[in-house]
Amino acid sequence: MKKFLLSFLGSLAGIWFSLFIAFFGIILIVAAAGVASLSNGKVVKVDSHSYLQVLLAGEISDRPGKIDPLGMIQGEDTRAQGVNQIVGAIDASAHDDRIDGIVIECRGSELGLAGRQAIVESLHRFKASAPDKWIYAYGDLYTQGDYYIASAADSIYVNPIGQVFINGVSATGMYFKNLLDKLGVNVQVVKVGTYKSAVEPYILDGISQPAREQQELFLSNIWNHVSGEIAEARKVPADTVNAWASGSVYAAPTADYVKMRIADGLMYRHEFDEMIAGLTDKKDTDDLTPVSPAEYCSVQDIDKKGDGKGATIAVLYACGDITDETGEGIVASKIVPEILDLADEDDIDGLVMYVNSGGGSAFASEQIWEALQQWKSLTGKPFYVSMSDYAASGGYYISCGADRIYAQPTTLTGSIGIFGLIPDLSGLLNDKIGVNTSTVSTNPGGGMPGLFEPMTPTQRAAMQSYVNRGYELFTSRCAEGRGMSQDSIKMIAEGRVWDGAEALKLGLVDEIGGLDAAIAGMAERLNVSTWTVREYPALKEKWYDVLLDAGADVKAGIVRDELGEMAPLYETVARLKGMSTVQARMEFTEVSL
User: Fold this and answer.
1) Cystine design at 264: which of 155, 257, 426, 589 (Cβ 3.0–4.6 Å)?
2) Strands (E), 497-548
3) Rounded to whole angstroms, how far apart are CA atoms 432 and 6?
4) Residue 555 pLDDT > 70
5) Quick one: pLDDT band at residue 76, thresholds 50, 70, 90?
6) How far is it, in rounded angstroms, from Cα 429 to Cα 319?
């Protein structure tokens, strides 16, 4: 343990020295990137017989990611793709005579289930709107998530020695209790909700029965939906897809994929390109004119339906952890003024909030909920919510006041519950590293719980009472928003996580569908057939915005490099440190597709 602590502290010292050296480098890099961005603008032209190239590789986020300074210097846009751009480009290209079809390049993407569903739905709309156009998928190795998207293609092609992974869905959690015990850290918990399992990683060494119960239900529902869509697209029974998932098909001879109907053909890359060249009237593969969604969106306005004059619909993106003052996610001190400013924009006819959040600060969630109620009261205009991968706990809190809520079948939502985490570091300080503390207080019985000693019974009772009041407020907000009794909400609350399809049955959401469905529903509410979408908050595109954000990115990279396998411990402690005392947050559940 002593060697571990010395190694850990030594790594921290190395981090701060590296940050000091890197600081001046950041300034030079970003300043150079600013000059590069002004001089290396790429002119995009969409020629006739072009095709939309949907690249499934690396991180794909809800909206385009932040600018990468090094990429800017090299004249490359290395930002994460945005689902909104991919979906918008697919929808618009269906009606563009210059686009002959779509190629889906499967190279291993990182994207949540609801985002994948949105792309699949847009591909289905493309086929329905443009039956004379084609969609083909190609890959050397198909991850299951990429294969799910590729299944919407007319045909799937695999490298003759390629692989396809189909293995069902799973969720894996990490539990830190044994590590915390070794460090002498005792995490004290106060909570409401039998299923509120976000606290379990800090107090248990494995999953509890209630947490297992809820995960088994939503994982089963999600896989039934995904496997059902794959089965329908590949024209095989659902049992066949389950047989693929249980049969380690990644290890099967590639030639068997065609026999099993997993794929339609085997081709090397040049053969596939030659096929696409023939389809687009090109003499040679060097003449191919692929257009990425980002490039297409730079020359095609995807935010308009028709002439766009019928209504203006604001889409407010609320993605990430919910915090009070700081962070890169949903920061109450930033989004609350944004919401209230939107109330002053008279040309906005309706608001759709796109939510992708597992929650966070209960206090911040209440402030955002109240700001949205203010928006409704001040404007008298409709407010809808579109739920993405997650809209749980605090993510549901900020959503529940909407006039109408849309969710995907694969959305994880609910988790209506409250908890508080108060670490007690006395064992670490006293027993492990020999640091003792003494506190002198004028009112020893009335203070907040501290980090250097365990809670007293009085403090624990006070904290439990505080959390109970938070739960009562949370459930009352949900009851008011959903037009249900508070007792009815409590019956499906208890911190339990539900998938979108189950949430529809329970009345937590109103309709199954993605952002496009929410916008179309809003247009119907406004009685218009054409509209313009305006997105908020505005994306940071200037080089000097990058300078303001680059420091945190560089620090995170240095932390990971310096700490190596100890980085998860550091990040866990940092996450605990950054949490407000009372949280409306679901457990970190990454559903692996």
Assistant:
1) 155
2) 497-499, 511-512, 531-536
3) 12
4) no
5) low
6) 37
The C-alpha atoms of residue 147 and residue 153 are separated, in whole angstroms, by 10
Q: Cβ atoms within 10 A of the Cβ of 128, count? A: 9
Through-space distance between the first and last CA atoms of the chain, rounded to whole angstroms = 38
Q: What is the pLDDT of residues 116-154, one digit of tens each?
A: 999 999 999 999 999 999 999 999 999 999 999 999 999
Q: How far apart are CA 367 and CA 353, in angstroms?
A: 15
* Both structure tokens of 30: 């970003």
Structure tokens of 424? 């007690």
Comparing CA positions, the residue from 427, 390, 382, 391 lying closest to residue 527 is 382
Q: What is the pLDDT of residue 35?
A: 43
Going by C-alpha positions, the residue among 353, 404, 352, 344 that lies closest to residue 379 is: 344
- Of 115-119, 459-463, 561-565, the range with the highest mean pLDDT is 115-119
pLDDT-derived band at 479 (thresholds 50, 70, 90) equals: very high
DSSP 109-130: EE--HHHHHHHHHHHHHHHHH-
Query: Do the beta carbons of residue 40 and residue 60 sit within 8 Å?
Result: no
Q: What DSSP string runs through 263-329?
A: -SEE--HHHHHHHHHHHTT-SSGGG--EE-HHHHHHHS-TTEETTS-S-EEEEEEEES-EESS-SSS
Task: Of 471-475, 547-551, 559-563, give the lowest mean pLDDT range.
Answer: 547-551
The more confidently predicted of residues 120 and 16 is 120
Task: Report CA 436 to chain centroid distance, whole Å.
Answer: 43
- 427 SS3 class: helix
Can you tell me the distance from the alpha carbon of 581 to that of 336, in angstroms, rounded to the nearest whole number? Answer: 21
| pLDDT above 70 coverage of the chain, percent | 82
pLDDT at position 164: 97
Residues near 319 by beta carbon (within 8 Å), at least 6 away in sequence = 61, 62, 63, 329, 330, 354, 355, 356, 357, 388
Q: What confidence tens digit (pLDDT) does each residue in 182-204 have?
A: 989 999 988 888 888 888 988 99
Total residues found in the chain within this entry: 593
DSSP label at residue 81: E
577 to 358, 570, 572: CA distances (angstroms): 18, 10, 9
For 491, other C-beta atoms within 10 Å of its C-beta total 12
The pLDDT score that the predictor gives to residue 327 is: 82
pLDDT greater than 70 at residue 11: no
Q: Which two tokens stand for residue 252?
A: 């099967």
Q: How confident is the model over 165-170, as a mean pLDDT?
A: 94
Q: Are 533 and 523 in contact (CB under 8 A)?
A: no
Report the helix count and the strand count for the chain, using DSSP H and E.
22, 24
Which residues is 322 bridged to in the sheet?
330, 360
Q: What residues pair up with 532 in beta bridges, in sequence order? A: 304, 312
| DSSP-assigned letter for residue 537 | S
CA angle 168, 166, 242 (to 5 degrees): 60
Question: What is the rounded CA–CA span in Å between residue 530 and residue 517?
Answer: 14
Q: pTM of the predicted model, to two decimals?
A: 0.86
